[in-house]
Amino acid sequence: MASHSVLRLSRSAQIDSRYMPPVFLAPALQPFLCLTTSNTASQATSHHHHHHQHHPFSTTPPLKIRLRNREKNKSRGVSAIRRTGPRVPLSMSKYPLPEPVWDPPSRKEFKTRDDHGLWGFFNEKRTAMTAPEDLDAHGRAWTTAELAKKSWEDLWTIWWRCVRERNYLATEANERHRVAAGYGEAESKERVAEVVKTMRRIRDVLRDRQYAYDEAQNIVDTAEFWREEIEANERETREDDFSPLEGEESKHLLEQLKGQRPMA
């Protein structure tokens, strides 16, 4: 029994026979033999598991036998960010590219007309932003009673004046947000609120006028209908009062009168 244990130890640990321990030391080497055997088994198990991890089960064919797809994107590799350019060279000789002007004095200055429509997006002073005290210096909104007395042309003028006011206030709000000015926002909102009140009241006045026009049109249509009905009834009444018998009787009476006329 001891000789078998020593033999297994030599095989598992791969010990040279010259360094084999004596037979009487076999019982003392039994724990070492068990530890060596367990390590060998664990290494074999881990190697087997690792082998299965590298080769999992799959129904997909290996990459080497897959068919290589042809490139379908004709614009692949063309990037404006990386400046790769198009694959096919293009001819631009017909349209020469503009050259930048590096000398400021030689640059062309554009003069804008004073009545240009884009000036409507700026204030009267044509500055980028209005001072807060100037924004706060505004009147109240138009009342409905005041707008009801205005003509169509006056309402049109007030409406488009409000539109221009909102345009330049919105332009200044964007510029104020861009430069992070930190002032004028509260005054601008108050002014916009007054302009919006006026525009809403103009719509109310126009709506009231439309309702009044519709009611007047209904009254006129109703009066025209009843006038035609009355005229039709009168014509029917006159036709019923005149009968053919009265016409024959009057004719017979005239003949009698002719027969009774004295002879000259």
Automatic annotation (TrEMBL):
GO CC aspect terms: mitochondrial large ribosomal subunit
Lineage: Eukaryota, Fungi, Dikarya, Ascomycota, Pezizomycotina
Quaternary organization: Component of the mitochondrial large ribosomal subunit. Mature mitochondrial ribosomes consist of a small (37S) and a large (54S) subunit. The 37S subunit contains at least 33 different proteins and 1 molecule of RNA (15S). The 54S subunit contains at least 45 different proteins and 1 molecule of RNA (21S).
Pfam families the record matches: MRP-L47 (PF06984)
Keywords assigned by UniProt, alphabetized: Mitochondrion, Ribonucleoprotein, Ribosomal protein
PANTHER family: LARGE RIBOSOMAL SUBUNIT PROTEIN UL29M (PTHR21183:SF18), RIBOSOMAL PROTEIN L47, MITOCHONDRIAL-RELATED (PTHR21183)
One GO term (biological process): mitochondrial translation
Major localization class: mitochondrion
Cellular localisation: Mitochondrion
Species of the source: Endocarpon pusillum
Protein name: Large ribosomal subunit protein uL29m
Disordered: annotated segments: 234-264
Family per similarity comment: Belongs to the universal ribosomal protein uL29 family.
Coiled-coil spans in chain: none
Entry-linked InterPro entries: MRP-L47_sf (IPR038340), Ribosomal_uL29_mit (IPR010729)
Gene Ontology molecular function terms on file: structural constituent of ribosome
